[in-house]
Amino acid sequence: MTDKNEMAGKHFAELARIIDVLRSAEGCPWDKARTKDEIINYFLEEVYETVEAINRRGPEAVREELGDVLMEVVFLTQFYEEAGLFHLAQVVEGINQKMKKRHPHVFGKNKPRKLTAEAVREDWLENKMKEKKRTSVLEGLPNSAPALLYAFFLGQRAAGCGFDWPGPVEALSKVKEEVAELEDSLKKGKRAAVAEELGDVLFSLAMVSRLLGFNPELILRQANQKFELRFKSLEEKLAQVGKKLQDCSLEELDRIWEEVKKEDKLKGKRRKKINKKKR
Q: pTM (2 decimals)?
């Protein structure tokens, strides 16, 4: 393990040197012209590409995408180093010290013999609140996160303190309750109330997802991709007979959509069979 860590350290130092050179006076014109806000966008893009690789692609793709994320981290740090605020070594040292400090049961002098995962989590949250001087367990969540993901984070934090549904079935009952309230608001025609109830439905669904062990942001992304692929297949079918979307009735579009869904499901079953054979 030590040899691998030492090798990783050397390669990481080389990456830092490469970024430093690219941003130097003799470096790359494109890299020198980049701004922090631009790199933030690239960073987020790479993070999502990494998540997609983990969920849908092989280990080689994951390795590559993790490298891209690491590169963006070093690139972002470079801006602060150029401004004389902090440098990469301080970033790495900071996280090293934080990890040791928050794992006294591993790196501390007086190590307990037995410690459950739940006890470790409770200590982690308590120590983090003291360290950050927070008055609420919900403080410190990333406001820039997508709303669905933020709901997931809120549920996680609250659940960590015991404020949660017993399980996904009970949480699903709450969804049904919220849907009934949404239907009532729709009948009354009050737009503000409809928006509020719709938000409650989405939040409740995020909690069901969390209790089932799914990140709602990720599974919604998968659902988006599925819809996109199926819709493009629908367009292709229409193009084959010389038609466009606007030329068709809703009934015709629904019929073709159902055909596309059946074909997609059959393809999915075939893929599963092939994957089983490979194993």
A: 0.65
